Amino acid sequence: MLLKYLGERGDSAGVDATAAVSVPFHLAGSAERLSTGVMGRTYGAYFLRSLRHKVRAKRHLLDGEVDVDRTLAARTLRDFDDACTAPLHGFAGADDYYARADVRRHLAHIRVPALLIQARDDPFLPPGTTPDAIVADNRHLTAAFTDGGGHLGFVEGELPWRPRFWAEREAAKFLARELRPG
Fold first, then answer.
1. Residue 161 binned pLDDT confidence (cut-offs 50, 70, 90)
2. Contacts by 74-78 with C-beta closer than 8 Å and gap 24+?
3. How many CB atoms lie within 10 A of CB 2?
4. Which of 32, 94, 96, 104 is the most exposed place for a label (fewest CB within 10 A)?
5. Which residue, among 18, 4, 39, 27, has the nearest Cα to 140 in the 3D structure?
């Protein structure tokens, strides 16, 4: 969402620098990946349970804005997005949401330093969808695309006793460098 905002706002974003980790560079493909394979279905089911729990807690606010019963009956992230996410945010449906909100449409227009940390083997990102060419063409974007790391799995060191979190360290270094006074 932040990268989309930065791309939409360009020079007037009001942000000095950012770092993004495990970005869903392909919304439709990522939603599909959360419905397929053992890992996708397992995490997808967990994620949907958490979303449904939030919808139940906010039902009093959502009634009249979305079809809450249809949202609670969603069996895939795409179904949920079609019933709740899209209409709640002014999109015609999941396809419209995935097309218009996809961050790849906005990356070329980002005008603040942005570090993008992404594993090419992220199980929730379709293979080959890291935006290498877009990043290469925008001097404001810095890619930290790794072959391994999974989804938020940038952990190194003696596990589990003394883990070090590579993505957090890289993001902090990048932001410290970019936000240095003077």
1. confident
2. 74/48, 75/48, 76/31, 76/34, 76/35, 76/44, 76/48, 77/31, 77/34, 77/35, 77/44, 77/47, 77/48, 78/28, 78/31, 78/32, 78/35
3. 15
4. 96
5. 18
For residue 165, report the phi and psi dihedrals to the nearest 5 degrees: -105, 95
Residue range 107-152, pLDDT digits in tens: 999 999 999 999 999 888 999 999 999 999 999 999 999 998 888 7
DSSP summary character for residue 22: S
Q: Which pair of structure tokens corresponds to residue 13?
A: 């974003």
The pLDDT assigned to 40 comes to 81
Long-range contacts, stretch 38-44, CB < 8 angstroms, 24+ apart: 39/123, 40/123, 40/124, 43/124, 44/76, 44/77
Q: What is the pLDDT of residues 60-107, one digit of tens each?
A: 999 999 999 999 999 999 999 999 999 999 999 999 999 999 999 999
In this structure, what token pair is assigned to residue 17?
A: 């620098």
> What is d(CA 141, CA 115) in angstroms, rounded to the nearest whole number?
6
Structure tokens at 27: 């919304």
Judged against a pLDDT cut of 70, whether residue 182 lies above it is answered with no
State pTM to two decimals: 0.86
Non-local CB neighbours of 147 within 8 Å, separated by 6+ positions: 119, 120, 121
